[in-house]
Amino acid sequence: xxxxxxxxxxxxxxxxxxxxxxxxxxxxxxxxxxxxxxxxxxxxxxxxxxxxxxxxxxxxxxxxxxxxxxxxxxxxxxxxxxxxxxxxxxxxxxxxxxxxxxxxxxxxxxxxxxxxxxxxxxxxxxxxxxxxxxxxxxxxxxxxxxxxxxxxxxxxxxxxxxxxxxxxxxxxxxxxxxxxxxxxxxxxxxxxxxxxxxxxxxxxxxxxxxxxxxxxxxxxxxxxxxxxxxxxxxxxxxxxxxxxxxxxxxxxxxxxxxxxxxxxxxxxxxxxxxxxxxxxxxxxxxxxxxxxxxxxxxxxxxxxxxxxxxxxxxxxxxxxxxxxxxxxxxxxxxxxxxxxxxxxxxxxxxxxxxxxxxxxxxxxxxxxxxxxxxxxxxxxxxxxxxxxxxxxxxxxxxxxxxxxxxxxxxxxxxxxxxxxxxxxxxxxxxxxxxxxxxxxxxxxxxxxxxxxxxxxxxxxxxxxxxxxxxxxxxxxxxxxxxxxxxxxxxxxxxxxxxxxxxxxxxxxxxxxxxxxxxxxxxxxxxxxxxxxxxxxxxxxxxxxxxxxxxxxxxxxxxxxxxxxxxxxxxxxxxxxxxxxxxxxxxxxxxxxxxxxxxxxxxxxxxxxxxxxxxxxxxxxxxxxxxxxxxxxxxxxxxxxxxxxxxxxxxxxxxxxxxxxxxxxxxxxxxxxxxxxxxxxxxxxxxxxxxxxxxxxxxxxxxxxxxxxxxxxxxxxxxxxxxxxxxxxxxxxxxxxxxxxxxxxxxxxxxxxxxxxxxxxxxxxxxxxxxxxxxxxxxxxxxxxxxxxxxxxxxxxxxxxxxxxxxxxxxxxxxxxxxxxxxxxxxxxxxxxxxxxxxxxxxxxxxxxxxxxxxxxxxxxxxxxxxxxxxxxxxxxxxxxxxxxxxxxxxxxxxxxxxxxxxxxxxxxxxxxxxxxxxxxxxxxxxxxxxx
Length: 931
Hints:
It holds the Pfam family Glyco_hydro_3. The chain has 931 residues and is α/β, with parallel strands linked by helices. It folds into four domains: 23-365, Glycoside hydrolase, family 3, N-terminal domain (TIM Barrel), CATH 3.20.20.300; 385-414 and 457-592, Rossmann fold (3-Layer(aba) Sandwich), CATH 3.40.50.1700; 598-750, Aminopeptidase; 752-917, Aminopeptidase (3-Layer(aba) Sandwich).
């Protein structure tokens, strides 16, 4: 079956005009079994399947994996495939690894475990090591990193697979992980778009989990890491989930089948140009509701480039038939199909070649990498162990428990993790294959098929207990507990032991564990009241949220998975071989009042020669970690803050690393006409919540209070116009709360809003505006230079902040690029003024929203129209005159910085859109007695 040629794809090899070949390239499939089956061979040879997904069911060892991949690629080469197969694998670490080989493949902590270390650079090292290992086995597409934000962290099955619940922190770690994958020579696939971080599970296999957040709510949190990953240019593919979306702005039954999600949101709004991969369309909810044939056509129409069908051969054949029917019926156009082919071929060109595909280095390379990766694994796990509370100082056990005293270990019954020697040995003992290793795809998609997962009882934690006994060189009692609660055997052992360690694994979703732990805690309290020594330590070995907020549990330690490697690290922490240094990622880390949050940092004066390059690096780091509406930070440079104005005293301060010259924080202060101003306060995103900002703020206020004649201290500044105040984020303003906690009275503020007309060429004058201005007898003129500007300067001096007087003076001095529009009433009285700043004006370097490398941007700055019966009309007239002037200069867009409080509304009525809002706050110096 041929596809008619399309001008957009004339450069493609004629092979892809054959619809069968093009369809094969648009599918990614897998199978069960550790050897090539006739079915998967047929899919590659006869149906031209171009991409394979491998799961734990396919892989026995590193050597077998390399041989299997080599065989698959050889089949493809011999079948005439012009490009090698994409070979995809889940290898997220923690509990989600498809490939396990204790001799050659290292185990590393989960994404949340890595984040618990507090070191984003570790995410780079770990992910690069992981990608290097699976790349050595012939895999070229890594299904990761997980970009989800756990908006409802305690109850979501995604758990430790995600970094945490803070979108900026998730972005930092995921960007580091993406660089690690890229530097290992592999392609990456972010997941799970648009978010699996807050799903509403309805319970049945036939029910799809639902996202209930609105698009606005998703934009404020869940989409931030996806947006930042795409903007980095390192994300090659995106896994689009099968969840539903139900909110007033979008009602979608399956995200990966919706053009609103894939084409509109992912591609058009977020700008993703890579390969979109659908959720597995074998999911029961989809097949019952739509049927696989309809599903694959909908996925392709929605914008997916690779459609996933995990392992059922009959379903895979049905999917192939469905796509062919879609092409024949005209539902899938040739342009749509070839667009996906082009994207997939581009992905293959950057991550594989026939020389690489047919000769994976396998164990020869892995044996060289293994020693350094083992050392990295141990360091990562040791640094991830987190003690959330230790009220009674029970840790380490060597300090609180004598070797002669008995230690009791109570552990739950759990499934072994795929990446474990226990699973491997159990699988080998089940040669008939009835007990299958669970796959790593989201369990809700295939829940029915995973019910045969092996239950190993005490086996998972048996070795942990033995090692703990050996390490403390003392007696240890060990038994398991179940949903049957505290039994007589538990009571007898608790009575014997001086210390009890209870292990929990996702107690929030396995509620019997929470109930059992609280019961034992109550028993220990009662026995202590009778004079018996009954220490209790709770160790969460999966989700750290089991008892994170329950302060009745006095000693609480967390790992982030229960692989053998994690359990070894937990033993070292319990007996004192290491001092745990991890902390809970995300908002809990931010909110915890730890000792380090009261640190005092050395604050030094900013020196341009020494600190200029460091400030540029700091500003770039802050921009990368900021919300999209702070995009103007991209144009902010060290020079932005240097006004060199005779009337404005400026003094800037830094916290820096004197060894590396890196800046950890920067604050800009200015003083003019009795007002001290903080123009910016920025802290390295990786160094927040350790009091750097507090130290800078304290020094800034202290310096400003020393100024003779100071009357007020203002947070936010319009010249330079970087931060006009505290950025408003549309929800709970944590930045405002931070300043409030730092001594500022934030009750009273004024809102300053930067506005924009993005398409100036198509902007038209609102109907009737000119007539209303004429009827009011308002006139306008444009002035340049200081010679005839006294009335303007008096007007600004009387009605605006003192720094704006200097902004107007600077604008009047720039006769070529700037001017002032005046509005007057019929008697000649001044009603208002506004600055016009043409593109490429030297003044623009101090107003970052006016700077663009790609567009010609004009600016209207500091409209000042004091309240009167004509003030709204005067303001609109000033904006209108300014727009006309800027349009005549051929600018493509224009920014108005800024509108005060309610003046925003009449400007919106003229076609201005809100770019960013700030809250300017002023306090008396007396508010800060300790500074």
